[in-house]
Design goal:
By secondary structure, the chain is an alpha/beta fold. 41% of the residues lie in helices and 19% in strands.
Length: 190
């Protein structure tokens, strides 16, 4: 029997948390991370990405690329608290799940097929998380973790994507030379 594996990922998580606290930051280019000489971008809003900014980049470089960005040091205790809220919602709705990082989860929905349909269930779970936390989140649903994770990346920002059983290979084909190899290396432990 094929499995139904859900991958959920909060969109630009630290940025979204900062926007919850201060709504004036909505739609403005935003960088979260170290502001010192060796500071690194921990998260950046979509508005900064068209300037070539990405997370992990030196803050100095990011500020040069996108001078109009608002820069925030970040507050890990707030992110931990928000992550916990999301985890609690998932825990309540899904018996088998795994927290892969502060803003990323896998859940096995295989057993739910006959009752709800996994996709419908995942859609409702995503709506509940958005409604109860105010945080945008995306998901991918497929027969395995790798395909679901790639699907989440394609669904973003703030959307969802289902890859039906049997379509895994054709979905992954465009990624085979790029993203897929990186993903397999990164997730070989699964
Ligand atoms: Mg994320």
């Amino acid at each position: 029997m094929k499995k139904n594996i859900l991958h959920l990922d909060l969109d630009t998580f630290f940025v979204s948390c900062e926007r919850l606290i201060d709504s004036r930051l909505q739609k403005r280019p935003l960088l979260v991370g170290g502001t010192g000489d060796r500071g690194v971008v921990a998260a950046c809003s979509y508005e900064t990405r068209r300037f070539g900014v990405h997370s992990g980049m030196a803050m100095k470089v990011a500020r040069r690329l996108c001078p109009e960005a608002v820069v925030i040091r970040g507050n890990s205790s707030i992110y931990t608290k928000q992550s916990h809220l999301v985890t609690e919602i998932i825990k309540e709705k899904v018996p088998i799940f795994e927290k892969a990082s502060i803003d990323e989860f896998y859940a096995d929905l295989s057993g739910m097929d006959k009752f709800f349909g996994s996709y419908k269930y995942a859609s409702e779970l995503r709506e509940t998380i958005i409604r109860e936390t105010g945080l945008p989140i995306s998901f991918g649903l497929s027969a395995n973790k790798i395909v679901s994770k790639v699907a989440t990346g394609e669904a973003k920002p703030n959307n969802q994507l289902r890859i039906d059983h049997g379509f895994e290979k054709s979905f992954l084909a465009p990624f085979l030379l790029g993203k897929y190899h990186q993903l397999v290396q990164k997730h070989i432990k699964y």
